[in-house]
Amino acid sequence: MSHRFARTELLIGSTGLEKLAACKVAVFGLGGVGSFTAEALARSGVGSLFLVDHDTVDITNINRQLHALSDTVGLPKTQVMKERLLQVNPALQIQTRQQKFTPELTADMLDNRDLDFVVDTIDDVDNKAALIAGCVKRNMPVISAMGAGNKLDPTSFKIDSIWKTSVCPLARVMRKKLRAIGITADVPVVYSTARPISPLADTNAHTVSTRYTPATGSSVPAAHGFCISGPPGSIAYVPSVAGLIMAAFVTDKLLGLDVFPVV
After folding, report:
1. CA 97, CA 108: separation in Å to the nearest integer?
2. How many CB atoms lie within 10 A of CB 33?
3. How far is CA 53 from CA 69, 129, 162, 201, in A?
4. What Gene Ontology molecular-function terms does this entry list (predicted)?
5. Rounded CA gap, 98 and 91, in Å?
6. Contact by Cβ (8 Å): 169, 226
7. Residue 202 resides in a domain
8. How does pLDDT run across 50-77, given as a tens digit for each residue?
9. pTM for the complete prediction?
C-alpha cells in the first residue's frame, strides 16, 4: 500500500520506519544548516521534533534557508518550520521554542524531554559550547555543525570528532572553548576542509551588517570565515549539504545501521 514513506521503507523496512517514528530529535538553530536538517529528519520519518530558534525570517535568508520565502519574511522561524513540516507529515509531533539557547537554559531545554539525539547548529560559540557540554554531561547523543559560511565547495564536508578537525576556523575556536570547560569527549561534528573565502567588499551586504554578531569575537579575521563588519557570505548549496549530512548521521545512529563510521 502506498504511503508517504513508502520509498524509505524500501531501504529500511517497516521495522526501521517504526523505530524512527518512535524517536525524538532536537534541532537547535533553524538557519541554512538547521532548517535542512529538520526537514530531512521529518521526511525520513522521525516521529517527534523539538525545534529551537529565537529568530524571525529575514529577506537575506531566502538564498539558503528552507522556511524563507517572500510571504514568510518577518515570521518566527519556528512557526514557519512547524507549519511546513506538518505538511510533510501531519502525524509529526513538534514542540517549538521561540527563544535563544543560553547556558542558563540547558536544563530547561534538555531535561525531561526524552530526546534521542540533539542537533546543534547554533552560531554563538559560548552557547554552542554550553549545549554540547550539556549533552555530554547527560550522555545525550549530539552532533554539531561547524562553519558553513564563506564557502563555495559543498563536497568538502566531513564528519569526525571535534578533536580531529582541521582547516575550519570555528572548529579551532570550539576545541579551545570545550577544552576550557573540561569537555574532552569525541563529539561528532560536520565541518568543511575548504578554506574560507573573504566576502567581497564592493557589495550591498554591509546594509545588513547590524543584524550579525561575530561568533568568535574580533580575534578571528573575516578571511577565516567570520565577517567582523558584516555577515558571512553564503550560497544555497553549501549549508544545505551540511544540514543533510547531519540528518543522515542522526538517522543512521537512530537506526543502528552504522553506515557512517563511529566517531
Report:
1. 11
2. 32
3. 17, 16, 24, 30
4. tRNA threonylcarbamoyladenosine dehydratase; ubiquitin-like modifier activating enzyme activity
5. 22
6. yes
7. no
8. 999 999 999 999 999 999 999 999 999 9
9. 0.90
| 8 Å CB contact between 61 and 29 | no
Written as one letter, the residue type at 155 is T
Does a structural domain hold residue 184? yes
In the numeric block, which cell numbers belong to residue 24?
A: 525524538
The enclosing domain of 60 has a CATH number of 3.40.50.720
- Any idea what DSSP says for residue 54? -
* Contact indicator for 187, 178 with CB cutoff of 8 Å: yes
Residue 99 lies in a domain: yes
Whether residue 210 is predicted with pLDDT greater than 50 in this model: the reply is no
φ, ψ (nearest 5 deg) of residue 247: -65, -40
Number of structural domains the chain divides into: 1
Pairing of strands 117-120, 142-145: parallel
Q: Give domain status of residue 138, yes or no.
A: yes
Give 262's contacts (C-beta < 8 A, 6+ positions apart): none
Closest CA to 26 of 108, 146, 90: 108
Tens of pLDDT, residues 68-127: 999 999 999 999 999 999 999 999 999 999 999 999 999 999 999 999 999 999 999 999
Residue 230 has a pLDDT of 75
The residue type at 225 = G
